[in-house]
Amino acid sequence: MTVITTIEDLRQLAKKRVPRMFYDYADSGSWTEQTYRANESDFQKILLRQRVAVNMEGRSTRTTMIGQDVAMPVAIAPTGLTGMQHANGEMLGALAAKQFGIPFTLSTMSICSIEDVAEATGRHPFWFQLYVMKDRDFIERLIDRAKAANCSALVLTLDLQILGQRHKDLKNGLSAPPKMTLANIVDLMTKPRWLLGIAGTRRRQFGNIVGHVKGIENMGSLAEWTANQFDPALNWNDVEWIKKRWGGKLILKGILDVEDAKIAAGCGADALIVSNHGGRQLDGAQSSIAALPAIADAVGQQVELHLDGGIRSGQDVLKAVALGAKGTYIGRAFLYGLGALGEAGVTKALEIIHRELDLTMAFCGRTDINTVDPSILLPGSYPVAPRA
């Protein structure tokens, strides 16, 4: 058996085990995928300063995200269709995150429902990500369900008012569960582990929506509903309304521009996530890590900043923290682990990232993640905020 030492090892195994349409859904971006690739490659351009003869004993990666103690500055990002990467995927991911001591974020477009995840984790607090839909009654009930499930933070996504064009999804005819076309049947027959898992669960549709919206009882009506429900009229007044309705910790996701960051910081959110939706919306936009320094310079003293996009290693986490992020999110790295090995694969992904973070921090002469700053980076190798 191959020894798994990197997130790339998990990616390769997931590619073998997950049906093509769901693997492609996770491992792709919009249009030319320029921004999707830049999210990773821009991290690689940032160089670290190696330090020596520093006492490396007593290292700690423990910190907080929005006041919550975490084993490392990493949370599992909200990812749609997670239960199609592996049966009961959201429940398994939440269990692995609970055991490791980091936050798990459930997507509105999850396969397992809010209630499924709450039950699986013994009502251990997790975060819930909300999309703004035109059906405001549904949104209100969704927020109330998240409260009832003991969710400790609401992550409001702002960058999906309309859906970016993702060519692989269109070519694969993405659906949950997959349509039984000849091509899909041939592909599924080569994925026996996946088939066995899906056959053994009742969770194969969008659990937060089916049965909770009038008239949505099957996949045909669901597809029509979701196509018409993302709200292109979303504005900052909606953010204020949701904040009041929720009443708890609020994180705004999808900030990539300094002017938007200033507006968002004034909304009373507990944190902002610098994110381009994993390169799945506006292709040709900045990478998340390239956008971070200017946003940190503009609002970093007012609001806690997190970063999402391109995190594939503990070194990426360290670089993001050095440039102003209090926390980071892993989406694809989490999905690779899940698709490869289920809950054990998620745990393996977290262990890999944690070990890389711990060792790299030590080699850079630091023993506490809370003392990391830009001085651990080689000057000239990383983006800086433009001078006014």
Describe this structure as you would to a colleague.
- With about 400 residues, this protein is an alpha/beta fold.
- About 40% of the residues lie in helices and about 10% in strands.
- The strands form 2 sheets. Strands 3-10-9-8-7-6-5-4 form an 8-stranded parallel β-sheet.
- α4 packs across α5.
- It is globular, with a radius of gyration of 20 Å.
- The N and C termini lie far apart (about 55 Å).
Task: Describe the structure using short key phrases.
globular, eight-stranded parallel β-sheet, alpha/beta, TIM Barrel
Task: Supply the number of structural domains.
Answer: 1
Helix-strand pattern, N to C? HHHEEEHEHEHEHHHHHEHEHEHEHH
Name the average pLDDT: 94
Separate helix tally: 16
- Computed Rg: 20 Å
CATH architecture: Alpha-Beta Barrel
Query: What proportion strand?
Result: 5-15%
Portion in helices: 40-55%
Spatial sequence of strands, sheet with the most strands: 3-10-9-8-7-6-5-4
Q: What is the number of strand segments?
A: 10
Outline the biggest β-sheet: 8 strands, parallel
What CATH calls the topology is TIM Barrel
CATH class: Alpha Beta
Structural class, judged by helices and strands? alpha/beta
